[in-house]
Amino acid sequence: MRGLLLRLHLALLAALLTGLLDPALATRRDFPHEPGKKFCYELPVDRNRRYLLRPTFFYGASSPPPPVFDLIVDGTFWTAVNTTDDVLAGSASYYEAVFGASGRNMSFCLGVNPDYTSAGPFINALQVIQLHDSVYNATNFTASAMGLIARTKFGSTDDVERYPNDTFNRYWQPFPDSKHAVSSTHNVTSADFWNLPPPGVFNTALVAEQDAPLVLQWPPIPLQNDSYYVALYFADTVSESSRTFNVYINDYSFYEGLTVTSAGLSVFATQWNLSGLTRVILAPVSGLPPLINAGEVFGLFPLGGYTFPRDARALEAIKRSLQNIPDDWNGDPCMPHGYAWTGVTCDKGQIPRVISLNFSSMGLSGYLSSDIARLTALTDISFANNSLSGPIPNLSNLRNLTRLHLQDNKLNGTVPQTLGIITSLRELFLQNNELDGAVPLNLLLNQGLTYQFLPGNNFFPRPPR
């Protein structure tokens, strides 16, 4: 439900630019429809910093309708992308979220969900913006991410606005109201605000009538019952003046006795529960009527977790030892669930472990990395029917391994005696390689082991079939 909710809100509030007006939308990259695969961009980042991600999608005039697919960041499902309504309007769709960086790279992925459509995902552009440490800093980005629901400039009659002095290139949607809209020309210093809003968002406002509250339905769409980050921005439109009022959201007190001057201020809540249609009510207390200049609402959603770090590092090393690898071997190897790398099976634990590698008949070349032995939860390994060369590494650390299928390759060297000390091993197929020497006696005497060493190979003495 979370992904559907964010998709609907962002589709409704997306910056609507036609492909003819924005050069970034003149081309798109398409990916194949391969269910369960994710196609990733690896983004270099600074550990423990937070990043605003803004992908853009414009399918153009086309029939049938554009595909629907998933957005994934590292191991976290973000939202589903559905641009159908925007395509019918000749418009682009923008999605936006803020994620914390846990390492030196962040993966942004498009996931092929077989429950959606029968066409592969696409993308036109991706903006990645490192945020200042103060921006949205009250959110715990080690546990959550933030998906944009609305970012609004109240009183504006223009189109979506961006400001050259906003280093984060944020988009602000208009919220026109001719009855209450007021303009202002005095300057507000954004450095005084944690979220560093551009000063331009304070040059319009909605102002209540004298002795009356200002009531807004905002965001203008219903919200799922959940926690939200809400930030509201205020600056008196009259120089050297002030006004005091109370702020309510859905009849609950958000801030009482808020005194606003022309210098401006903001109030926010990091986890405010909202559900359904939302009303923002500004009730006068003293002085001039209440007003509001801008606001932001983000949905909070939990991070999806990561593959056990040692397993993830081992798979990256294995990837480097191979050629002709599948094109979805990027991003987190196990997460989110349903999007593991091709051939990789993981358990369903809170911190997933890799339990099986089935790389049979993938057209792989290269060699078997010794880092396979670091995947200590493995029960099954198959590299059968590829073009791997080099020796068989020491796998004695794999105490849970039951099946090892390496047949029909170009492996050379001897059969490691260390295979015989893996007491859990029940199947060992090594035929049709270029192995030589003697088969270790501890393998031949293992009555619980089904093995096949021939044909092929050059063992002496020749082992029994």
From TrEMBL:
Keywords: Leucine-rich repeat, Membrane, Repeat, Signal, Transmembrane, Transmembrane helix. Residues 310-347 form the Leucine-rich repeat-containing N-terminal plant-type domain. This is Malectin-like domain-containing protein. One of its GO terms (cellular component) is membrane. It is a single-pass membrane protein. It is found in: Membrane. It comes from the Eukaryota. Residues 22-298 form the Malectin-like domain. Residues 1-26 form the signal peptide. Pfam families: LRR_1 (PF00560), LRRNT_2 (PF08263), Malectin_like (PF12819). PANTHER family: OS05G0393100 PROTEIN (PTHR45631:SF3), OS07G0107800 PROTEIN-RELATED (PTHR45631).
